[in-house]
What does this fold into?
Amino acid sequence: MSTPILEVRTLVKHYPGVTAVDGVSFAVPEGMCFGLLGPNGAGKTTTIEIMEGILPPTSGEVRYRGEPLNARFREEAGILFQATALQNFLTVHQSVAMFRGLYGRGLDVEEVLRLCSLEKLAHRDNRKLSGGQRQRLLLAVALVNDPAVLFLDEPTTGLDPQARRNFWELVRSIKAQGKTILLTTHYMEEAEMLCDEIAIMDRGRLIAQGPPERLLREHFAEVLLELPRAEFPESARQLPIEFIEASDRVEITTDDLDATLRTLIEAHVPLRNLRIRPANLEDLFLELTGRELRS
Amino acid sequence: MRRLFAVWHARNLEFLRDRGALLFTLILPLSIIVGMGFIFGGPPRPLFKVGVVGAPVNTLADPFLHERYTQFVPVENIVAGLKEVRRQRIDLLFAPGDPPRYWVNTDSPKGYVIEKLLLAADPQAHRLPVTGKAVRYIDWLFPGILAMNLMFSCLFGVGYVVLQYRQSGFLKRLHATPLTAFEFLTAQVFSRLSIIVFITVALYLGVGTLIGFHNSGNVALLLLLLVLGSLSMIALGLTIAARFTSQELVNGLLNLLTWPMMLLSGVWFSLAGSPRWVRWIADALPLTQLLHAARAVMLYGAGLQQIAPNLLYLAAVTLVFLAFGAWSFKWRI
It folds into this structure.
């Protein structure tokens, strides 16, 4: 097997009174979009910032192409932080050009602007951009060195749904160029849409890892039934069904929909608000931790 | 009212917990008051300054030397004393003897008055006239104002900007690129250096022409002095901004540096005659060194050799603070 482009080995990061990352290991093969999924405070950002070489780990190590992080890594990595400030008074073009100047190799500024649909905004003050435009500019800054590996830390948090979809399209086109992407997110939809493989993180540990479809297949039968919690009678808890309770609903998983429905009808469970849908990563998180992803 | 109290209380807590800022809010005014007291306090200032040849001054040598409100300063020899009379830095030069001789600048109003006092005390004294224009206060002040502007621009321009970069996370983003701390700091130094050299030269030419300032020294030497002086101030600013993340602390530290320099470097008035320890502190400040050398060149036409110690001092300050700044530099909060 070829060396993974990025590898994390038993990473630990302590802060006073808290262990943010607790023995995390995984490998990212070249060309893959790898997602770190988890709720806020799970340790995703700490993990990705250690991988970026921004934060020193308490113990453990990160390897890039089989070697500890070095000058080559800095040349070949593109990074989009969760919150990045740029210099005031500079235009979009000037901001990208400044970062282009920091790298030995890379793309033309115009090409990067075109890639991120920023041509028309090239001469606008970077403080006068909308959330989505700003995020595209930060992506342009991350792409300016034509990186082999791209780190995206919660890239669409705070964007409206349309801007988020546009951003996903952009990331997909970058992925199509064969770049390795490491993404953190707490949007399961984003992870499902973009990632070839995900690792679910909770309280500093990895609790599941694999391609999203495989994880869902492994953990869930075909379908998932959702009932409002208030309409799920106490007596139904004794029924021979498998269910988990979320804050406002009860989720029943089954591989025999007909049988389960019959059981519920016979027990006089009101089915007026029943929803039947396939399981998603959010359900997986709930299944694995007993808590909701965005609680 | 409750809302007002909640905000008032939270802001007070924020301020009190920022120990650095609190400390400076107390220390700064205190040190200014104490410093000013030492400089301006004490007995009434003498009205006249008389140079007496032959140190120390022997007050029994002549009845004139008992005169009140007159400061008698020893002068090594007549040549050195005459230079001071010509520049009107002393009002009269007196050489006790038989008969006593004195040199007075016929262009000096104070010289005219003190001469009358001298002749009343000792009518035997023999008069030797000297001529020479005094340095106009505006000409004396001009290098000081340029230097002070340079100091503020370098300290705050560099210190605040780097702090703001750190606070906003822009430094963290730069840290994720191949850029090294040394490269970043060097770029900051040269950016500010070119800006301040441009501004100072523009001010020198513009205001200098306006007030009819005449430079007596070498322009290239002045430029060298400008570059070294700016570098030392930028290095000082970078040292302050290298590590800290609190705006109020950095503000306090910058004020702690700028106020003594503004008061003690001799921008506004000469510190000759203030206590020795005040002059020691003043001499350690890079602005004093810069200003001393600048006045020597601009007003009295001093050459490289005369201001070499000042230049060396500024270069040393630059190197020490740059090294310290680079060593203690922190990218993230």
